[in-house]
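Entry type: protein chain
Record version: 2
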Amino acid sequence: MAKLIYSAIASLDGYIEDDEGGFGWAAPDEEVHAFVNELSRPVGTHLYGRRMYDTMVYWEDLELEDEPPAVRDFAGIWQAADKIVYSRTLPAAASARTQIEREFDAEAVGRLKAASTRDLGVGGPELAAEAIEAGLVDEYQLFFVPVVVGGGKRALREGLHVNLELLDERRFHNGTVYLHYRTR
């Protein structure tokens, strides 16, 4: 059975976006990006809400010739993976290997996990919260960057309660810290 993994890059105070919707402060440097690539490589399917998909579809048509190696590598990893977008309003996908579902169906995701030979990733805090509440998220890959933004969109929904076991940690030269947990 595949694992469902929630990954997020957040401020030290736990936000993926600041109160103006910005997240430029979360852009990974080459070292962090290369590490993220290795974590992303085993993921066969990404589950996204509409807003996270709108952010990530950037990788579909990115001009790569002037980009650093880690960026070029990630674009290929992302393009090769399947994507499921949960949206009531998205008329059509803007990327290959993408299907649109109108509602999040926890039972269908459970069946997908059971049938998949590669891990699944869930991106976006709202969709991740639904999957967490349904007991579907097996692991958390959280990156905390050395900035406090004071408000915005939380990486983890308020009111969630999950017992976790620390599997790994890593500190990067730019001050970013990676924490990897498994659901107990």
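Comment: The radius of gyration is 16 Å.
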